[in-house]
Amino acid sequence: MPRSSFLMRVIILGSGAGGGVPQWNSASPACILARAGTIPSRTQCALAVSSDGERWVLINASPDLRQQLAATPALHPKPGTVRGSGIAAVMLTGGEIDAIAGLLTLRERHAFVIYAAPTVLTVLAENQIFAALDATLVPRRAMPSGEAFDVADLRVEAFAVPGKVPLFAERDGADPGRSEDGDTVGLSISTPGAGTLVFIPGCAALNADIRARIRAADLLMFDGTLYRDDEMITAGAGLKTGARMGHMSLDGPGGTLAALHDIAPRRRVLIHLNNTNPVLLPDSAERHHVERQGWIVAEDGMEFSL
Amino acid sequence: MPRSSFLMRVIILGSGAGGGVPQWNSASPACILARAGTIPSRTQCALAVSSDGERWVLINASPDLRQQLAATPALHPKPGTVRGSGIAAVMLTGGEIDAIAGLLTLRERHAFVIYAAPTVLTVLAENQIFAALDATLVPRRAMPSGEAFDVADLRVEAFAVPGKVPLFAERDGADPGRSEDGDTVGLSISTPGAGTLVFIPGCAALNADIRARIRAADLLMFDGTLYRDDEMITAGAGLKTGARMGHMSLDGPGGTLAALHDIAPRRRVLIHLNNTNPVLLPDSAERHHVERQGWIVAEDGMEFSL
Lengths: 306, 306
What we know:
The structure is a homodimer. Chain A is α/β, with parallel strands linked by helices. The first copy, chain A, has one domain: Ribonuclease Z/Hydroxyacylglutathione hydrolase-like (Metallo-beta-lactamase, Chain A, 4-Layer Sandwich). Chain A has 8 helices and 14 strands. The first copy, chain A, has helices at 29-36, 65-70, 97-100, 118-126, 208-215, 231-234, 256-260, 285-292, and strands at 9-14, 46-50, 56-59, 87-91, 113-116, 140-142, 149-151, 154-160, 185-190, 196-200, 219-223, 267-271, 295-297, 303-305. Chains A and B meet through α1 and α2 of A and α1 and α2 of B.
């Protein structure tokens, strides 16, 4: 069979940042519009990727995973089976709740493999609640950093991204600042006959390695959490800047739009969108601005082929 | 204002057992019909209760809590506020994932109180991930057993129910059998001018205290997990009996229907429904049978006033 007949399918299960849109306790303009059905609701960020449409790899296990799987026919068990799933593996790009809590949804004696950075595996090991996933059925493997490995016929490379330790693991009062010790990773995913997806849902800063990986991507999905570094503060929605939360912002001279303008591939998607981000509002100047620069604002259920 | 104008509102946020309907990896008849929209989907079991329609007490925090809150206008933040919620407290009837994981959804610096049995508070303390709920904003209080206490003008009594320790906390290989040490509780909830809700989503066996509380109820919501003790085994969906999972079954001489026939109040609701339970199928003999005995089969979004 010619390799050209192979495609990689990428489904956006969730396009929102932690809390989603609407976020349960937020009355931001985007949350109000999402509740009214005027703009799409967005669950918390996760992808499903497959080399054959049968075996699927989840990228992050969001707290909304049950809802996301119910909404995605490709991930339903086949009729005629009693129990089953095409989910072969779950890869985690960090240890925040919005990336790992959905593992608890997968607690029904289905065999799959968890891949994560060693620090994230430590979070899972230290929280007994994840013992709901029987280790004999659901082994946990450390993702080698910068080294390719194969999962369900996908070629994967995890690479360190400047980020931060999970909020719940911060020490009292300490500002952990930026962490580059591998808590947060990005992923390059490809198949032999197809192109390369680069997925970086959280990124505090670019470096030469990340730039090179972005240049090599055919499809980029990148941290679109905040438009402006201080937008949560000016919206009265929080006390933290984007930088404090481990996210670059889109706007400004050092922002994502400027930094990636010339190096991102033609297919470029903003994902992990916070409910304060004005790009969620279809008529905003910010939405028009990112679209003019070629960016797609991610929505749940979007599908891409490579 | 005359007390008679006060009502207690009870909203069923979720009516399903652990995993919900459809359950992500199940192709049971009910799951297939729920995916097709032929029968209602059911999220995992939880209630919202209010004495005034403004301040709400959640009973259990299911993994589906974000979806449940989005679907429930009474629990949306008021427009005009930036952030806010009427949720004043969360009461937990057990430590299973389907009762506690939703706490992680409430991690956005909103002040409320968690009430749970001491053993359940130990589960929360031993899993650092729940530190996402800042203890200075979200205090955790042990529910006194058998003693009334007040929460948001609701009068609450928690009472021990035969159950079992959470699955994820079982020791390897050991069958913990039945636990009566307070891991699982039922709740009686009332307001001065209204009647009494008795909520028992999991019950391994009745005893004299539970029977007396059920007799005193105006509205009963009771464990409807399984119709037959061995239905998960005969469906090929698992290896465990209902008894092993801490649930009485509806059918049979020692079953719930027979045991509660003469003591349950007129308003009687089966809740915490597993995806294997034939009462989910509208035309089943089992559904007709429970309805002839006066039982309502719970659906998400049902609301009751007392």
